[in-house]
What we know:
single chain, mainly alpha, elongated
Amino acid sequence: MKKKIKYTNEPLGRLRVIRDFLPHPEDLVLRDEMVKVTISLNKRSIDFFKSEARKHNTQYQRMIRRLLDAYAERFSHSLTKRRSRHANSACN
């Protein structure tokens, strides 16, 4: 049996209060606007995502959605830069 901890009434030393750093519960809820779409995908791709989803105990649709979100996030910045370059060259 483990030795029980005996608590005493000793001074704790110098203490300081720290600022609350935890997010509010409503900040933890993902609120991205969702749009339902119908899309035909290659069976091999779907089989891959289903297999990976089982390995990681998640949903394959969620994995595909996150992949598309990451792709869009990555390339939306370069697309914006390209558009502004074309707009600037058209003005000259």
